[in-house]
Amino acid sequence: MAVDAARSEEGFTSAGAARVMSAACRATGLDDRGAELIRLGENALFRLASVPVIVRVARGREWLTTARKEVAVSRWLAGEGFPAARIVEDLEQALVVDGHPVTFWQLIVEGDRKATYGELGATLRALHALKVPDGLELPSFDPFDKQQRRLDRAVIPEDDKVFLRKRWRELQGKYAELRFETPMAPVHGDAHVQNLMVDDQGQVILIDFEAFCFDHPEWDLMVTAVEHHSLGWQTDEQYAGFVTAYGRDLYDWPGYETLRGLQEFGMTTWLMQNVQEDERTAAEYHRRIAGLRNDDAPRDWRPW
Predict the structure, then answer these.
(1) Cα separation of 8 and 193, whole Å?
(2) How many CB atoms lie within 10 A of CB 303?
């Protein structure tokens, strides 16, 4: 099952990922006809038309450990009764197709509203209070673990790569000086409001466990703090709802500026992977790299 487009260093493409998804469905007896690509980011997510299943295709074999962790986290949270995405239990997890880990998830039937920032704060507070069981191996949070691969493979100008590598080294130095104030806990690792879904019963459900880890809760608080204080993506009222529900505003912490730099860098390199997909993605990447080059300029970045 050759899937050259999905495995080439020119990028992880939607077309290549679709071929992997189809092969994975054939291997498990699922019907991929009418499958719809619903997101292309660190992974490609496809919604099947034949059954209520989401197929998640990872970028390469190096993501197999992460895929297995996601499956283990889903099973743990299910056992805790925590409202979170559930895997399809009667299929092999994770399946590797031509070097790409593939996982299968129960479709969440969405209701008629989106999750609020107050609900995000409450969900994170509940998550951080859980006790990780013996036997569940979770990594520490590493804000740099994906950056080398992203920079090596991205189809961007060499001048951008030189700048980003220099910024990466600067951020590593600042990260080494961080001193956290909280005990370690289970951490989602990518805790933005888009990683919450509200189902048709009104239940708020946590999704996407790729960055799940055991570390300091500040890593989860930084996402919404940066989106509000730096990018202006929430109203003051929305952000106040988040802070009230969780009980803390990370903006008041001395380490906020370092976490802001790490978050904005990660947001830029995440998008950078898909600049070849379309002009809209490329234009947003150019907005973000321009912002990184001028730390004092207002951010006109757009949610993605």
Answers:
(1) 32
(2) 10
Amino acid letter, 73: V
DSSP state, 87?
B
Does pLDDT of 298 surpass 90?
A: no
CA 237 – CA 185 distance, rounded (Å): 28
pTM of the full structure: 0.88
pLDDT above 50: residue 62: yes
Residue with tokens 């976490």: 259
Q: How many CB atoms lie within 10 A of CB 137?
A: 11
- Which pLDDT belongs to residue 28? 95
pLDDT of 176-205, one tens digit each?
999 998 999 999 999 999 999 999 999 999
DSSP 140: P
| DSSP β-ladder status, 100-106 and 53-58 | antiparallel
Structure tokens of 282?
A: 């490329």
Whether residue 1 has pLDDT greater than 80:
no
Reduced 3-state DSSP string for 94-139: CEEECCEEEEEEECCCECCCCCCHHHHHHHHHHHHCCCCCCCCCCC
Instruction: Indicate the angle between helix axes 236-246 and 218-229, nearest 10 degrees.
Output: 160
- The answer for residues whose C-beta is within 8 angstroms of residue 156's C-beta and 6 or more apart is 272, 275, 285, 289
Contact 12, 59 (CB under 8 A): yes
CA dihedral sign, ordered 128, 130, 132, 136: negative
Separation between Cα atoms, residue 37 and residue 14, nearest integer Å: 8
Task: Give the type of residue at 239.
Answer: Y
Measured in residues, the chain has a length of: 304
Q: Using alpha carbons, list the distances in angstroms from residue 286 to 14, 129, 167, 270, 281.
A: 21, 39, 16, 13, 9
Instruction: Name the β-bridge partners of 215.
Output: 185
Residues 109-151 pLDDT 10s: 999 999 999 999 999 999 999 999 999 999 999 999 888 888 8
Which tokens go with 102? 């593939």
Q: How confident is the model at residue 88 (pLDDT cuts 50, 70, 90)?
A: very high
